[in-house]
Amino acid sequence: MGVETEIKFRMPTRHLGASSGLTVPGCKIGQRSESNLLSTYFDTPKHRLKRCGLLLRVRRTGGKHVQTIKKTSGAQFGRGEWETEIEGRTPDLDGADGTPLEPFATKLQRKLKPIFETPVHRTTLPIRTKRSQLELAIDHGRIVAAGRTSRIEEVEIELKSGPAKDLFRVAKALERKLAAELCLRAKADQRYDLVNGKRAQAVFAEPIELEKRMTAIEGFQVIARSALRHFSGNADAVRNLDPEGVHQMRVGLRRLRAAISMFSKALPAAKTEEIKAELRWLTNELAPARELDVFLQEKIDPVAREITSQRGGKAIARQFAKKRTEALERVRTAVNSPRCRALLIDVLEWIEAQRGRTGVATSELGESAAELLDRRMRKAHKDAEKLQEMTARERHKFRISMKKLRYAAEFFESLFRSKRERKALARLSKHAKKIQDCSGLAQRLHCRPKAGGRGGAPRTIARQARPRVCFGHYRWPRG
Q1: Is residue 127 one of the residues assigned to a domain?
Q2: pLDDT tens per residue, range 112-141
Q3: Cα–Cα distance between 468 and 374 in angstroms, integer?
């Protein structure tokens, strides 16, 4: 098995040709080479391999056929890759022994068929530093799938040997000089979208798979990578002025910020503060568009439909729709900015460079997760008892803490496999969601406790904050 460590970019067509003339201080660019590649990707009619996070490809180059099996789940920065030279153009699953495809090989052999094909002209440049060997690949070509075609214009940097720091140095040079945008979505996923006739759509959070024996810092890296893919994957939907794309990008940013908060004791402080500041900047850029979209859907549209004069109702709706469009344009400008492009690379580099603080970072994730959940639940229960006396600002902070608790339950779900633990997690998520919704409603309605400190939204919230849930050796205080 080989481990493929690479970064993929998209860049404006006008800059693609110039990437072959890239110069990076401290790097020596070698002799360029040209090749024509014809890659055929195989799967079952129901895309079983894709659903299992696997890719099967046969590539013809220089008169040879090379079969490649890859893991595409994206859990790691370096992905597993298994290559075998085969005789013909169709897969030879005898070469799948010892790969993640082996358990499916016998059942799938007859079901496999070509899903899409990519004829590509590749320009390759070797890059050397004192410590590393890298390869820059520039691809021009097209995807052919289900009678549809789409252009391929991509740049990849692969780390052949040496420290990842040099890989990011070249990546940053591409971003600064040629407006290259980091693309974390697997190429295969984009190809499958063409097969299914999908255009740029909102991308939702993916399931997170953790292992109890992971260290705390390893668990954080898996969660952080997932959140980064979540928010960066919505860039195209945002460019299409899709409000759902804005919402999902915002959710992805919040999930990453929540993960940083949860693992704050394990993370080194200096660089983390810089990353948090940039994440806040992008979150704030998204906020007006999302808030106007919710206001339009929940308040303006229902009122506009009830107004006796339909003309008046439509005029009100048009005014707010125009404001939403202006806010969406602002978001598109932010996503297309050099600051956002730099942020994506900085965050990925920061995630991969994590070593954590001694002691905390090396503790087992299973124990840390149980401790963290119970600690946050105890705090939520304690805060809920004071809801009657809280100010609007304090209740808003309480709502955010409940959202983080819900995210924690989602992040750590794969660590708790017993029926009892799964039920406890489901109850926790359910109650956290109810509390969050009640808190949001109270905030929008500016609810205050009734005379005597009884009743109203705060009391409802406090009542919801009493689920009987426990994890590990820690117990939720019983109300």
Answers
A1: yes
A2: 999 999 999 999 999 999 999 999 999 999
A3: 11
